[in-house]
Structure formats: structure tokens, C-alpha cells
Design brief:
Largest sheet: 6 strands, antiparallel
Order of helices and strands: HHHHEEEHEEE
Radius of gyration: 27 Å
Oligomer: single chain
Length: about 170
């Protein structure tokens, strides 16, 4: 009995000796989690995602020069040759709203099918992808302005991301 008791004490100490500290990976807490969730869309081209990532990673060192006391925001514009984003931030760096515009992006399959179904024998000439985000809304407002052509006739049509005509 004495040996059993000593054996249990020894095993109890052995478990404590082998305890190890688990190091958890760094966790990033972002004030812009709503924007991050909203722009996480499957059909968005890489160049759009790249510019949206720049908006998320923007750290304004000299925000006092841009800060507008009247509206409690400051506005920053991000440009690439294929598009631009104008983002409004609050004093803490939270994205309040964005307006995004991209030229000639690859249209989602749903949008292309909707246009070809309604306008057979028409070809797509060019398109503009517009995105509007506001922190109080649950989702993005996405719009495609598509210029289509059939022989000498040119039309501009608007659809949302589901292919519904506006």
C-alpha cells in the first residue's frame, strides 16, 4: 500500500514536470472588421482585392492635416491604373465609407449570362465595376455598368452582382 501511494505521488509529479507552455499565434484585432467581411466576395478580381487590402492596411501618421472636424472624418484616395478607391476614415482609423470604381474587370458569370440572355447577338465593349460601402450597412452595394454593341448600335446597361438589371 505504501508503494502504491508513493507510486501515485511520483506519477503526479512526473505529469507536472512534462507540462509545456503553448505559444499561441498573434491575433490581429482590426477596427475595420466590417469592411473586411463585406469585401470578402468570391468573384472579385485580384487587382480589386489588392487595392482593398491597401485601404485596410492604411495607417495615417499625419491625420491631423486631413481631419475634418465638421464631419469627424478624413478622406484618402487610392489609385491604380485600372481603378480607384476613395475611403473615409474616422479619428480612430475605422473605415466609415468607401466608393470604388474599376474599369474593365472580368464580369461574374451570372452578370454575363443575364446580359447575353436579354441581349442576344450583342457583344460587351467595356465595363465599369462600382462598389459602395458604408459601415452602417450589412453589405456592399455592387453595380456593373456594361457597354454593349450590336453592329452600329451601342447601349449601356446596369446590373447588380446577381445579374438583375437596374
Amino acid at each position: 500500500m505504501k508503494n502504491l501511494f508513493l507510486g501515485l505521488i511520483f506519477i503526479g509529479f512526473a505529469f507536472q514536470i512534462n507540462a509545456q507552455a503553448v505559444e499561441l499565434p498573434e491575433t490581429l484585432i482590426s477596427v475595420n472588421y466590417k469592411y473586411l467581411d463585406a469585401v470578402d466576395v468570391d468573384h472579385v478580381p485580384n487587382r480589386v482585392k489588392k487595392l482593398e487590402k491597401e485601404v485596410l492596411n492604411y495607417k495615417n501618421i499625419e491625420q491631423s492635416k486631413l481631419y475634418d472636424d465638421e464631419h469627424d472624418t478624413y478622406t484618402v484616395s487610392f489609385y491604380v491604373p485600372e481603378g480607384k478607391i476613395v475611403a473615409a476614415y474616422d479619428a480612430q482609423g475605422k473605415i466609415i465609407r468607401t466608393i470604388e470604381k474599376y474599369n474593365n474587370v472580368r464580369l461574374p458569370l451570372v452578370v454575363m449570362q443575364s446580359i447575353s440572355k436579354r441581349f442576344p447577338n450583342w457583344g460587351i465593349v467595356e465595363d465599369v465595376y462600382l462598389i459602395k460601402y458604408h459601415c452602417d450597412d450589412d453589405n456592399l452595394k455592387q453595380e456593373y455598368k456594361v457597354k454593349i454593341k450590336n453592329e452600329n448600335e451601342v447601349l449601356t446597361v446596369k446590373t447588380n452582382e446577381k445579374g438583375e438589371f437596374i
